[in-house]
Amino acid sequence: MNKIKQNIVRLSVVLWLLAAIIFRFITLLTEISSQDKPIGLESIITFYSENPTNLVTSIIIIIIFTLIGYYFGSYLKTIIQNIETKINENEENADKVFNFVEKLRSGAAEEEFLRFDENDKLGTALTKLKIELAERNIKEEKRKSEDSQRNRIAEGMAMFGAILRETSDNLDELAQTVISNLVKYIDAQQAGFFVLRENGESGNSIEQIAAFAYGRKKFSDKVILPGEGLVGACILEKETIFINSVSENFVEITSGLGKSNPRCILIVPLKTEEGQIHGALEIASFKIYEKYEIEFVERVAESIATTITNLKINMQTSRLLEESREQAKELAAQEEKMHRTVDDMRRLQIEAAQQSEQFVSFTNSVNHTMIRAEYNKDGILTYANTKFLNILGYESNSDVEGKHITTFINKKDQIWFDDLWERLINGGKHFEGDMKHVTKDGKDVWTIATYVSVRDFEGNPEKILFLGIDTTSGKQQSLDYEGQINALNHSSLKAEYMPDGRIIDYNNRLLDALNYRLDEVKDQYIFDFINADEVDDFKTVWKNILNGIPFEGRIRRTTKNNEEKWFYGSFSIVRDIYDEISKIIFIGNDITEQRMMETKNREQTEILKLQEEKLQQAKVDLSRKLKQSREEMKQQFREIETVKLLNEKTLEGMLDAIVTINQDKIVEFFNKAAEDLWGFERDIVLNKDISILLPPIDNSFGDNYLGNYLKIDEHVETNMRREVFILNKDGEQISVLMTLSEAGIGMRYRLTAFIQRIEVELF
Description:
The protein is an alpha+beta fold. Helix content is 49%, strand content 21%.
């Protein structure tokens, strides 16, 4: 490149000189040719000799071209020098960029990239890149540190979770295992495990049940009081204590190499997520713990507290289980009596399942056949189906819509119906039963009616729904049957028996004839009232009756006063829907004084038999449902009583005061802890209004009075723990922690308050 720069001017001059010579030679030949002279050396010499100016012109042209070549060469030389300088600068920049990038890659670049000028975009970008990489490295280091901390915490929680699961049935073993592993895991030198003991009336104490590397000098008695020392203060305040500047006389860590004071003390309460305190962990270490390590120890302490809570619950559960076993022994004597009932219930459950399937199909059919109407809260009819219109004698909805409900109710029923309507629009219990409506022509229509409040999404009554079935003809027939039954009970003897002969019912005429009361004969057997010499024959007759052979004839009975009575009548079988015998009915007459009037008695018996057969069909469903409902209610009552007894036994033993009121604000439950808290005996409070415990107070006390919350008729905030106060029997104000729980089934409602003394919870 240097040789090119040195010879570029010379080469340019030579080239331009040659160009001038060639140019002049060509012009010379052109001029000679234009003069028609032969081209040759002589012609050229003659051309210059004849006209010397031509020589001067040629010299001037050569000089001009030579000068042009010189300046052109100089210009090229300058361009080449500039290019060379630029190339050198670019090579230097490339080296600088390469070195800077290498430093960035290795992380050793500390100074900024030296830019060539203000417009050096590459230098600016590299400087920004260096800053961004530095910030990214800082973030990456922070992320790695946080990941390492999280992994450390996760591994530790998993390890201590396994330890707690394996030793959750023994508190001493759990404490020693946890404290020894915790010291190793967080690189501590000394640690102690303290638990809060509840000693009843003598107060609470704090006991050290496990230690690691503790000397004999500190806590030699291993028992302190709440609030005493740092451990007592930690348990009292329920807050972690961290000291990173430890006095020389506080504690010494002893090893084979000597004694030394720790650099920090960490005391963490054993506190559950709900705030229940069980003790504390005290840790001494030569290292200053970071925030995440303290949080890790707090999480381990919370897990320990939860495990201790579960351990206490398991111990209490074991105690309750033992009590339940004692109760089970007491109930064992009653199980034999219940076996037969259970077998009957299983059979009834199978029957109920079959009937349920039939009921679903039946309901779908009834939806197309029932009378239906809807009214607003003002009693104005807003909708009526075709059944409603047809049965009440109207042609279209326009004839009934907008009419008041009193249009369809008999004026004689208006007073009691107004009370029913007022209850419905206020969200009260629905009505279901026989009801008489009035047609357009003023005729009576009997229905099995249901009036029910339909509520909106907020639970407020929105409209009243009426559903009914036309029972006019059935009601008339039922009234006719009732008249016949009443006439029968007034004119004849009537008795009902189970298939085994057990007495179900005697009418008054039969009881009067035998001089017995119903409670004296019910659940007895018919054979007990037959003369001894006729019992075997009557058992044969009874067996024939069960086999479908009816009996009609005379029966000799003995009254309570051992007087003989003669009855003439018939025994009839009543079958259920499964064609099984459900009961035996006897209908007869007292023929003691009319034995000789057999013909008349026979006619009366036939009449009564025909009437009884009509009654059988009408009563078979009612009897079956009544029996089934009676058995179900008995079983439900037993189960409810058992559950209620178990719950009350469980709540009675709790340390928290528990008060339960019903929807009428009557106290239903008041445990021993509540007696101690208020100073009232349970017999004085139970079945009394809650006002006996919550007297009215001055408004200056604010919203923290228990009486402002333990109310049925206002919005209840349940499952929230808040600090309130109560007034005991002596009028003293006591601060407590209160949690409300509500439960409701239908119109029945219960509100339970769990109340805990604040000082009991702290200590």
